[in-house]
Amino acid sequence: MEMLMRGLNKVAILGGNGTMGSLSGGIFAQADIPCLYFERTAEEAKYGIEKAVKQAKSAILREYIIPKTYNDLEKELPDCDWILEALSENIDLKRGYLEKVDKSRKRGSVVSTISSGLSIEELAQNRSSDFKAHFLGMHFFNPPGKLIANELIYHTDNSETFKKNIYEFCEKVLRRANIIVRNIAGFAGNRIGFQLLNEAAVYAELLGVDRMDYLIGPYTGRTLPPLATLDLVGLDVHRAIVQNIYQKTNDERHETFRMPGYLQKMIDRNMLGMKTPSNGGFYFKDENKERYILEPSTLKYRRTRHVNSEVIEHVKQHIHDGNYKKAVSVLKNDKSEEASIARHFILGYVSFSFFRVGEVTPEENGIHGIDRVMAYGFSWMPPSGWVDFLGGPKETVRLIEEADLPVPEALRNLPEEKLCKIPDIPRFLIAV
Amino acid sequence: MQKRVYILGGFQTDFARNWTREGKSVQAMINEVMEGAFAAANIEPVEIQAAHVGNFAGELFTMQAHFGALVLNYDPVLRGIPTARHEAACASGSIAALAARTEIEAGLHDLVLVLGVELMKSVDSKRGGDYLGTAAWYEKECKGISFPFPKLFDRIYDLYNELYGVDYEHLAQISAINYANAKRNPKAQTRDWYMNKQHACSTGEFNKAIGNTLRATDCCQVTDGAAVVFLCSQDYAESYCARHSLNLDDIPYIQGWGHKTAPILIDDKIEDARKNEYALPYTRRAILDAYTRAGISGIKEISCIETHDCFTITEYAAIEHLGFTKPGEGWKAIEDGVIEFDGSCPINPSGGLIGGGHPVGATGTRQLLDACLQVTGKAGDYQVPGAKRVATLNIGGSATTNVVHIIGAGN
Question: How many structural domains does chain A have?
Answer without folding.
Answer: 2
